[in-house]
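Please review the protein record below. Let me know how this chain folds according to its tokens.
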Amino acid sequence: QLQLVESGGGSAQAGGSLRLSCEASGYTYNNHCMGWFRQAPDKEREVVAAIDSDGSTSYADAVKGRFTASRDKKKNTLYLEMDSLKPEDTGMYYCAAEFGPLRFCVSSSLVGYWGQGTQVTVSS
């Protein structure tokens, strides 16, 4: 079992930056992919970024060039650096993980482990 705990959400002005962290505990042998999803009010949960155990990444088109996902295996922690924030980035951000390749962490229907979420609010 994996437990995921996010931190680092909050409020920012458009154009600003925020950094999210997600600490994993439990069965952590680093052979799992991890990802970030977000959900705005009245919208479907969508993938933001994902990273596999080798460091390969995948990003949603809406965040390419602005967001960077990384992971520290020694600390069992996933990060999301968010720059050039836009009001449409507002939402609840969830950390996710699954045992398997990168493609398992780019679809909410394939991910089995979720954090509790952290709110990100970007004002114009």
Q: What stands out?
A: The chain has a mean pLDDT of 95.
